[in-house]
Amino acid sequence: MNKIVEKEYFSEKIVKIVVEAPLIAKSRKPGNFVILRVGEKGERIPLTIAGADVERGTIDLVVQKMGVSSTKVCDLEVGEYITDLVGPLGKPTEIHNLGTILCCGGGVGNAPLLPIVEAYKKAGNKVITILAARNKDLIILEDEMRKHSDELIIMTDDGSYGKKGLITEGMEEVIKREKIDECVTIGPAIMMKFCSLLTKKYEIPTVASLNSIMVDGTGMCGACRVTVGGKTKFTCVDGPEFDAHQIDFEEMMSRLGGYKKEEVDKFDQFQK
Ligand code: FES
Asked: What is the distance in A from the centroid of ligand 1 to the CA of 93?
């Protein structure tokens, strides 16, 4: 059982929890994730590790209230326990000194993006980060991102903060201005799809971190399968990061929506 030692609300629906997990804190790398459950019969939720404190033996997880399981995690208070937590899982991000990296995060995707931004900067790259969300309240980890980026651009759909517009508009402005050697995108699948289409047009190598549905997290169940370059890959063991230009985003989005009705029904029952 892993104890929650800190909790912070980024917004009404986005919560950061700091969880005791000394072994994971010691061995995690940017891009790694954990799978956790709340309750013996709880659904397994994959969450990328947003940060870690080796001295304290803790990891940071950022959760957005979406359905029953994520709400149960968000409702846990300091001093309470996560029933089980497995990790670090997945392949870490390949970090090299490439030149200029454009890091693009959407909504809660900013949490897994943070350690990647940090690592690229540490490796000597120039890092330009774009954070995007529907509105100001959904922009998270701005100060932390600013600390590790050479430039930070905020985009909101409604113009309530930063520049008004979609993430791709901010990206294109940067791409037209300077040479980008690699792009990383993490956020909703639809956002990653359009980021990827844009960078494909400009022939910029791009990596996307996928948030597929997961069950075992060890390559056994097939729940997280995606098609990359025409081949079946498992997000949990082959990813979560893939060459964005090779990902079949349409198939991925249709698989993500496969249980929508059941999720909505369950959430309605949960709220009653
Ligand atoms: Fe089961 Fe990836 S979660 S194969």
From this structure: 19
Beta-sheet strand order (sheet of 126-133): 163-164, 151-156, 126-133, 100-106, 182-186, 206-209, 241-243
- Pocket test residue of 215, 242, 255 for ligand 1, highest count of atoms within 8 A of CB: 215
Whether the full predicted model's pTM is greater than 0.95, yes or no, is no
Shared domain for 82 and 149, answered yes or no, is no
What ipTM does this complex have?
A: 0.99
For 93-134, what is each residue's pLDDT tens digit? 999 999 999 999 998 889 889 999 999 999 999 999 999 999
- Residue 211 counted as domain residue: yes
25-76 pLDDT, tens digit each: 999 999 899 999 998 888 888 998 989 999 999 999 999 888 888 898 999 9
Q: Are 127 and 67 found together in one domain? A: no
**Any idea what the CATH number is for the domain that residue 8 is in?**
2.40.30.10
**Domain membership of residue 19 as a residue range:** 3-89
Q: How many domains does the chain have?
A: 2
Residue ranges lining ligand 1, Cβ < 6 Å: 214-217, 219-224, 234, 236
The distance of Cα 175 from the centroid of its chain, to the nearest Å, equals 23
Q: Residue 220 C-alpha to ligand 1 middle, in angstroms?
A: 6
94 assigned to some structural domain: no
Q: Are 183 and 102 in contact (CB under 8 A)?
A: yes
CATH assignment of the domain containing 133: 3.40.50.80
Q: Whose CA is nearest to atom 4 of ligand 1?
A: 219
Report the SS3 class of residue 54: coil
Examine the domain organization and report whether 68 and 186 are in the same domain: no
Between the CA of 165 and the centroid of ligand 1 the distance, in Å, is: 35
110 closest CA partner among 202, 230, 16 = 16
Co-location of 148 and 79 in the same domain: no
